[in-house]
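Quick check before the chapter quiz. The format below is the same one you will see on the exam, so make sure you can read both the input and the output lines.
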Amino acid sequence: MRNITMIRIKAERPSSVPAAAVGTVKASLRLAYALLAPVCFVLALLFSACGKTGYPQAADGDLSFTWLESGAAPAGRCASFTGKLGGAFQNFGGIRLELEGLNSTADCPGCPFVADEAAELSPVDAGFNSTSGEIGFSYCPRPAAAYRWRMIAMSTLNRLPHAVMTDRLLIVSPEGLQ
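Here is the expected output.
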């Protein structure tokens, strides 16, 4: 009989990277993915509104109204305010009158409008004409030489924006509304 000797050869896979380094590389990749995910999320949020500018506008344009004209004039100790609404003025819910009393009659177009007096009037108090969209009322503000003023027509529909007019200057007599 022949003697057969078995030789056991331990085969190792050749590797240029030690086993400890492989674990470190895997941990580094996990860390990179963990940091990359929040960065991608933030970038997605930033670029999702790309191209959209301005304040949101209601899609119900046929339900809103705007100012067509407005005016004010001294009337004794008070001031008379008039205006006309266009559009769907059947949704008119009242007026907010805002006034800023001025010590001089010089206008300051670049200055911010800061109302120091305001009044809210219902459609009835504002003299609202539901067929023509016209308003007319008197208001007695605190005495001043002049007033910067604006009216805000409020909508009965909460989802629609109010119609805000630009501020105007009302010059009264040199002694003011007495």
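If your answer matched, good. The two ends are 138 Å apart (CA to CA).
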